[in-house]
Design goal:
two-stranded antiparallel ribbon, alpha+beta, single chain, 3-stranded mixed β-sheet, 99 residues, 5 strands
Length: 99
């Protein structure tokens, strides 16, 4: 007997796609919370805050980090490296808006 998909409330894990990520969602792990875990690969953390783009080596999903919104509330980070890079990215966005 083969198991069949009954509920499509979640997206299937391990399917190649492109996902946008916001700073408030960091640190980033794959599979994400919106993916079905039962058929997924092991959870891996991706250092997208360093590069702006990361590809999961297990499933091929490309994650793209969105620029920070200067008008939004500053997220609470539990990692000083992520917080520092967020502040640098926010400064770049503000500078681009004034140019």
């Amino acid at each position: 007997m083969v198991a069949k998909h009954i509920d499509d409330a979640h997206e299937p894990a391990c399917t190649q796609k492109i996902s946008k990520v916001e700073w408030k969602d960091l640190p980033l792990s794959c599979p994400t919370a919106s993916m079905e875990i039962w058929n997924a690969h092991p959870q891996v953390y991706l250092p997208i805050h360093r590069t702006g783009r990361e590809t999961c080596e297990w499933c091929g999903t490309l994650y793209v980090l969105e620029p920070p919104d200067p008008g939004a509330e500053v997220p609470q980070f539990c990692n000083s490296e992520i917080e520092g890079l967020y502040r640098e990215a926010l400064a770049r966005v503000k500078k681009e808006q004034t140019s």
